[in-house]
Amino acid sequence: MMFAHGYGCDQSMWRFVAPSFEADYRVILLDLAGSGGSDPSAYDRHRHATLLGYAEDMLEIIGELNLRNVVFVGHSVSAMIGAIATTLRPDRFRSLIMIGPSPCYINDGHYVGGFTRSDIDGLIDAVDSNYLGWASTMAPIIMGTPERPELVEELRNSFCRTHPEIARAFAKVTFLSDNRADLERVKTRSLVIQVSDDMIAPVAVGQYVHDHLPNSELALLSTRGHCPHLSAPDLTVGVMRSFLQRDRCDGS
Amino acid sequence: MAHKRSSWTGAEPLQTFFDAAPCGLLSAASNGVVLAVNDTFLSWTGYERESLIGSRHFDELLTLPSRMYFETHYWPLLHIQGFVHEVALDLRRSNGSVLPALVSACGTHQADGTIGGLRYVVLAAEDRRAYERELLLERRNSEQAVKAKADFLAMFAHEIRNPLCAVVLEAEFLEREAEARGDSSVKQLRESLDRVLKLLNNMLDISKLDAGKVSLQKTEFEIGDVVRAVVHSLHPLAQARHLPLTMRVDSKLHRRVIGDPFKLDQALTNLVGNAIKFTEAGSVTVGADTIALRDDCVRVRFGVADTGIGIPPARQNKIFDEYEQADPTIGQRFGGTGLGLAIARKLVELQGGRLHLVSEPGRGSTFSFDLNFEPA
Hints:
The complex is a heterodimer. Chain A is α/β, with parallel strands linked by helices. Chain A contains 10 helices and 6 strands; from the N terminus they run E-E-H-E-H-E-H-H-H-H-H-E-H-E-H-H. The two termini of chain A are 18 Å apart. Chain B is α+β, with helices and mostly antiparallel strands. Chain B has 3 domains: 108 residues, 2-Layer Sandwich (Beta-Lactamase); 80 residues, Helix Hairpins; 157 residues, Histidine kinase-like ATPase, C-terminal domain (Heat Shock Protein 90). In chain B, strands 6, 7, 8, 9, 10, 11 and 12 form a 7-stranded mixed β-sheet that branches. In chain B, helix 8 packs parallel to helix 9. The relative contact order of chain B is 0.07. At the A-B interface, helix 3 of A face helix 5, strand 3 and helix 6 of B.
């Protein structure tokens, strides 16, 4: 099972969910290029200007570790990254679990993604503003203890470890991409986990994903927020387990 | 709990302290529903206590972009580490106006590691955020100005290079003709043109590297071949300055690896060219040593050592910057623009390494960098 985190986070967001699957699966956690503790040189602003670049990263990891029958669990933007990866190499994947997916965040005609372009610009301002805020908060501490560089690591929380330019670029690729056309090409069996009250990925979006994925199930969680695997891990693990059990029965 | 309450020895009741604290205080359930809120928060935002308690979530009081930031950054981090400090968020007041704030939070951990109740501290940060916005705007404007200037420079250099190449070819032709007549006057003209062309090429390289337009082209090669080619191409320059130019390649590196030989060549050529330029007596040595050899990775340390003028400690950090030389008189004494080391640094970084310098004024300098290669 490969777990890929969403925008603004890193692999530590799977801490309440991933251990539940360790007994039955080989669990692989990863930080996307440019996020968390990933190798800074792995980020390439051209390659990672689209979700395809991230999807190719996933396939490289799968190739490197020689994985087959992968259950790919992706939160938010990584749900779409996983979906694209399955269209490129369907033979490598057993199933796809999408938590809070959205193929397009921007409203477009009858399609309601939930946001306008100016909302996304506002989010990017918030990202920038927090780098400035963090910089001014942390600078005296960091400057005062140059002999202890690990303090920087301790102080910079996952989202502040990301370089501001990468954070801005990732915000754009996450929220301005339109990958609706990719959904129809996903042949891998999929589970869409949708939260009943999620302002980032509203129910209508989860329903759209389910309707356009040729082979999918929809699980609606009665909870709130964009990260049910953090705020309602038991519910999340429950629907994942039940899907995987059915998947195993049907596949065997 | 009773013994904890008794530790409060303030003259005013705890409730008065809570309500009149010079910051907004909120207590919320694990799902974010507001359970208690102090008077300061209510007076800053204009909400009635009854309209918040038990019915509103804290994130619902934020502007839409701040809510997005909260959902994607703040909330996950709060659940992962149990606290978040001073994150800039915009609150929406009851009258629709915006209150820029810094919001900290901590949660009580439950037995299973998940978050129970939440406590928020809200600091009004109108002035601070206004300054930050100005700084941000200033930074964006200057970034745009720098980009516009760089684009112009790149376009300018590119436009000049083509006709200049034709002029250089013509000058070479004239030089050969003049030399056949025993006339060396054209040589100086051709050398000056060569310097201008080299400068333009460097400017184009820097602008391409800065714009991220240079990418690695992986291919199979032998490291010793690259080092030999660099030494061979710069041998005439070293010879003209009566400097021995030597190379040392670890015997374990007589094997094929996968990497970008052209970028490695260019980085080493710049470093060796630089070393020759700044060395008046002594020698220049290029070395490549294996520092780790695994089935999946060969880690190599490259070094370029000279016995040149060296670089004073105070200037050592600056010399990797574009257009910087250790001393303003250096350009007059040794020529050049200071782009060579900046290009070398960027090329090394592009390949995943870092350029290091050890230098002593009057004794010489050693530039080194480590790169990983896949075995072929």
